[in-house]
Automatic annotation (TrEMBL):
Keywords: ATP-binding, Membrane, Nucleotide-binding, Repeat, Sugar transport, Transport. One of its GO terms (molecular function) is ATP hydrolysis activity. It comes from the Bacteria. Residues 6-245, 259-503 form the ABC transporter domain. This is Sugar ABC transporter ATP-binding protein. The keyword Ion transport does not apply. Coiled coil: none annotated. Belongs to the ABC transporter superfamily. The keyword S-adenosyl-L-methionine does not apply.
Length: 506
């Protein structure tokens, strides 16, 4: 009988009076893809950090391939054969793939005077590719690679160490297209065939059914179920309900009624930006949510940036509350009453080293400041606490640096910043990337709440999200607006419009 890659029994972890894990039993088989599911705070991240050496367990036993696991730091975890690829891998942008894979291990021998042999480096990289075949040119720099190629480099970097037999992947598909996801899944299957066991953390439940051999559900610090996708299908179970412990109500809030619509807040005509999109036109009223669906490369990201003043338009007009506006910078847009929740929150939406208070108030310094421009610190803290409650920030510690929060909670802080901005138009781009199913309903409810006093635009590569949250919608296909006369699409029409450029194929 094959010895499991990981065998954990009665593992517990406390942080002061808080029990993060309680009596967790878990088995990862050799050569298995095992998904870990749970809402934020359910315990899966704590369990993973114990396995990767970030935390030490308080109680219980763990064996790695039958050997007792005594891990005090990430270096120990690697010694046991466990490697982790974080949700946002830290790669050196102007280094090649080869150089990133062997970063810190460039020379054959560890010596202060050892020099890097690029020919040997390439030979080592090619040997790695011969073991785990995947189409990638490792001589290119990271900055010239696609999102999936960067993910592949991060995985190769992780498994390049000696005797790596367990790979932990944290939200690896959060920025990938469907085509890129298929490339990653092929690599994962190759790794599995070679005997490497994979722990797969994701909020995208459909991926669990596609790639996982088994999955385990964490809830309230406990492991409450381990099943196969086939068992879920046979029993007609809902993964979301297993995670939440209750019957899922409507994830999306009730849509607005025509009688709820207010003034026209945004009128866009003939907008064009280079070759990325052209002839974009739509109207937005208070009281409604307008959805825009498009795949990566369709132009939705660039359109959001033009509306926010981060990119300049080549042609077209933008009217805000009946007056033409010239948006030359995000500062112009914020002053005019347009707020953007960007798709890449880490680079474009947050100051990661600063507190949640600083980030929440950043978009409206006039409101955050008093006499002579001094910040109203006590008032700002109270407001930040209020907005942290509204977005269900976990933990609700507004003085903590944003870098200490999970990806989903970082997204909540960006939305809290939008609430503080008190805008007339809110633009959300990929609003729930990395956000668990329980928190999504809360965020969708906030969007609907915002739409009662403002106009809201949701742009996403998730067709179900766009269709579920919006009152009206259209698609962008290769920079071209695809819309029916009344811009009221069924879900399938919207999907076909976005992936084929023709809603009539639905």
């Amino acid at each position: 009988m094959t010895v499991p890659a990981i065998s954990a029994r009665a593992v517990s972890k406390r942080f002061g009076p808080i029990s993060a894990l309680s009596d967790v039993d878990f088995v990862l088989e050799t050569g298995e893809v095992h998904a870990l599911l749970g809402v934020n705070g359910a315990g899966k991240s704590t369990f993973i950090k114990i396995l990767s050496g970030v935390y030490a367990k308080d109680e219980g036993t763990i064996e790695i391939a039958g050997e007792g696991f005594d891990c005090r730091n990430p270096k120990d975890a690697i010694r046991y054969g466990i490697a982790t690829v974080q949700q946002h891998p830290e790669l050196v942008a102007d280094f090649t793939g080869y150089e990133n894979i062997f970063l810190g291990r460039e020379a054959a021998t560890a010596s202060f005077t050892a020099r890097m042999d690029r020919t040997a480096l390439q030979r080592r990289g090619d040997a790695l590719l011969s073991r785990f075949p995947v189409e990638i040119d490792l001589s290119r720099t990271i900055q010239d690679m696609s999102a999936v190629e960067r993910e592949i480099v991060a995985i190769l970097q992780a498994i390049a160490g000696e005797n790596i037999r367990i790979l932990i992947l944290d939200e690896p598909t959060s920025t990938l297209t469907e085509v890129e996801k298929a490339v990653l899944f092929r690599l994962m299957k190759t790794l599995r065939t070679s005997g490497i066991s994979i722990l797969y953390i994701t909020h995208r439940l459909e991926e669990v059914m596609e790639i996982a051999d088994r999955f385990s559900v964490f809830r309230g610090g406990r492991m409450i179920a381990t099943m196969t996708p086939d068992e879920v299908r046979e029993k007609n179970l809902s993964l979301a309900e297993l995670m939440l412990g209750e019957t899922m109500g409507a994830v999306f809030p009730k849509k607005g009624e025509p009688a709820d619509l207010g003034e026209l807040v945004l009128n866009v005509r003939g907008l064009r930006h280079g070759r990325l999109f052209s002839n974009i036109g739509f109207q937005l009223q208070r009281g409604e949510i307008l959805g825009i669906f498009g795949l990566v490369g369709s132009g939705i990201d660039e359109l959001s940036k033009v509306l926010y003043g981060a990119l300049s338009k080549d042609m077209g007009e933008i009217e805000l509350k009946g007056e033409k506006v010239s948006l030359r910078s995000p500062r112009d847009s914020l002053k005019a009453g347009i707020f953007l929740v960007p798709g890449d929150r880490r680079i474009e939406g947050l100051a990661l080293a600063q507190s949640a208070i600083f980030n929440t108030t950043l978009a409206n310094l006039g409101r955050a400041s008093g006499f002579a421009g001094f910040l109203k610190r006590s008032v700002n803290k109270l407001k930040s606490v209020e907005y942290a409650g509204r977005v269900a920030l976990n933990p609700p510690n507004v003085t903590m640096p944003v870098s200490g929060f999970s990806g989903g909670n970082q997204q909540k802080i960006v939305i809290a910043k939008g609430l503080f901005a008190d805008a007339d138009v809110y633009i959300f781009v990929e609003p729930t990337v990395g956000v668990d199913i329980g928190a999504r309903a809360k965020l969708y409810g906030l969007m609907r709440e915002l739409s009662r006093t403002a106009g809201v635009i949701v742009m996403s590569t998730d067709c179900d999200e766009v269709h579920g949250i919006s009152d009206r919608s259209f698609a962008l296909y290769k920079g071209r607006q695809i819309a029916s006369p009344g811009t009221i699409f069924t879900r399938n029409q919207l999907l076909m419009a976005g992936i084929m450029g023709d809603a009539h194929h639905a």
